C-alpha cells in the first residue's frame, strides 16, 4: 500500500527542515505522496499518517490539529526530553519500512475536551496533555470550586488546578506531585497546584465523568488563565466555569514496537542512574 503522509517539522530545531525533505524524498522514491509543512503554519489535512519532527511541544500542536481528523501520528525526537516523541532519528527508516511491511499499528489514548466562554463566545478546545486553570500571574492564590457530574465536590484554595490525560501525567501534573498513569487507561487526573489543604491531593476520575472548575480570583481584577497544553492561553473573566470531558475522538499514536512505555519512563526519568 502506498501512503499519503504528512511531515511537520519545527524549523527552530537544528537540521529539522533538511531531515524533513530527506525523509520526503525517500518516501516519494517508495511511491508515497508527501505533504511537508513547518509546525508554525500547519493546516489540518486528511492523511494516512503524520510524522512530527521536533520535541514534545511540536508533537502536542500536531496532535491538536490532526486528531480531530483521526489521523495517526508519530513523533520523531529532535528535542531534549521526548516522552511523546519516542523515536530517534536513527530509527526513522526502520519504522517506515516496518509500516510498509505490516501496516500502521496504532495505540489509542484519551484526549481532553475543554469548553468555556471567552469574550462572550463559546470556546471548544482539545488537549493532549492537560489544561490548567490558574491566576493571571503565577503564585497568586485563587479559590476554585470543583464539580464532578454537576455535583459539588470541594472548594480548593490553591495556585491552580491541572486536569490531565494519562499521556500528560508525566508533564506538569507530575511536577505538581501527581501520579504517573499508564497512558492507555480511560481516566483523567486532577492535580491541585500548591493546595493550602494537605488532604486535597491528586484524584483519578473515569473518562466518563464530566468535570467543572470555577475559579475565583481576588487579584488582577479577577482574571483567570485557561491554558491548553501550555500553548494556547486564554484570559477569562472571574468565575468562568470550565467544563472538562472526554473528546469525541481518541489520540492515535503509531506504535514503536521496539520500545515499551516503561523503557521510555526508565530512560527519560533516569530511573537507572
Count of DSSP-assigned helices: 5
Largest sheet: 6 strands, antiparallel
Q: Would you list the SSEs in sequence order as H and E?
A: EHEEHEHEEEEEEEHEEEEEEEH
Structural class by helix and strand composition: alpha+beta
- Tally of extended strands? 18
Helical percent range?
A: 10-25%
- Globally, the shape reads elongated
Cross-sheet strand order for the largest sheet: 7-6-17-14-9-10
pLDDT < 50 runs, ≥5 residues: none
Oligomer: single chain
Share of β-strand residues = 35-45%
The overall pLDDT average reads 93
Tell me the Rg in angstroms.
20 Å
N-C termini distance: 43 Å
List keywords for this structure.
273 residues, alpha+beta, six-stranded antiparallel sheet, 5 helices, elongated
How would you describe the overall organization of this protein?
The chain is of the alpha+beta class and 273 residues long. Helices cover 18% and strands 38% of the residues. It contains 5 helices and 18 strands. The protein has helices at residues 16-29, 56-66, 92-102, 172-175, 261-268, and strands at 4-9, 33-38, 49-54, 73-77, 106-109, 112-118, 121-127, 130-135, 142-148, 151-158, 160-164, 187-193, 203-206, 211-216, 224-228, 232-236, 241-246, 251-254. It has a 6-stranded antiparallel β-sheet, with no helix packed on it. Strands 13-12-11-8-15-16 form a 6-stranded antiparallel β-sheet, with no helix packed on it. A 4-stranded parallel β-sheet has the order 2-1-3-4, sandwiched between helices. It is elongated. The termini are far apart. The model has no long low-confidence stretch (mean pLDDT 93).
